[in-house]
Amino acid sequence: MRSRLILYAEEGMVLTDGEVFCTEVQLAEGNRGETFYEITKEEYQKRKDEETDVE
After folding, report:
1. Taking Cα atoms as reference points, which of 40, 5, 1, 4 lies closest to residue 21?
2. Contact (Cβ atoms closer than 8 angstroms) between residue 40 and residue 11
3. What does 13-51 look like in DSSP terms, one character per residue?
4. Inter-CA distances, 20 with 2, 15, 24, 39, Å
5. Model pTM score
6. Where is 54: in which H helix or E strand?
7. Tens digit of pLDDT for each residue in 1-55?
8. Is the separation of the CB atoms in 24 and 45 below 8 Å?
9. What is the Cα–Cα distance from 40 to 3, expressed in whole angstroms?
């Protein structure tokens, strides 16, 4: 039997690894999720706005 890890962001938070932003991550087999961390939705919006300004 195989098992998968699913990471869920806390209420009002977003998960990121610096490139991917989401509230739920289904990790690939063998990935333990060490690269993901939580940021606030406000921080996510700020990063998104900054990225849009660059384009």
Report:
1. 40
2. no
3. EEEESSS-EESEEEPPTT---TT-EEEEHHHHHHHHHHH
4. 25, 8, 11, 12
5. 0.81
6. helix 41-54
7. 777 899 999 999 999 999 999 999 999 888 888 999 999 999 999 999 988 876 6
8. no
9. 29
